[in-house]
Amino acid sequence: MRESYDFSKSKKNPYAKRLKKQITIRIEEETIIYFKEMAEEKGIPYQSLINLYLRDCAKEHRQLEMKWSQ
Questions:
Q1: Buried b / exposed e along 32-51 (16+ C-beta atoms within 10 A)
Q2: What is the span of the domain harbouring residue 46?
Q3: Does the residue 28 lie in any domain?
Q4: Which tens digit of pLDDT belongs to each residue from 6-48?
């Protein structure tokens, strides 16, 4: 390994901003626990698991069925 590297001629990745976007979202504690436990079983970070789940929902155009109790 070199002691130093010259990055003066390097180029930024033009796709870097398209990869993922950081957001703030409020999620119930029980939901976070559920995904953390599942992520531990699968051996991946829980935020990645949530992203995979949401991506699958978007890809399959899943619709949420909401029923309000009276």
A1: eeebeeebeeeeeebeebbe
A2: 24-57
A3: yes
A4: 889 898 888 877 788 889 999 999 999 999 999 999 999 999 9
In a domain, 29, yes or no: yes
61 phi-psi bin (left φ>0, alpha ψ -120 to 50, beta other)? left
pTM of the model: 0.68
Chain centre distance of CA 18: 13
Tokens standing for residue 17: 């901003």
| H helices present in the chain, as ranges | 16-19, 29-42, 46-59
Contacts of 20 (CB under 8 A, 6+ apart): 51
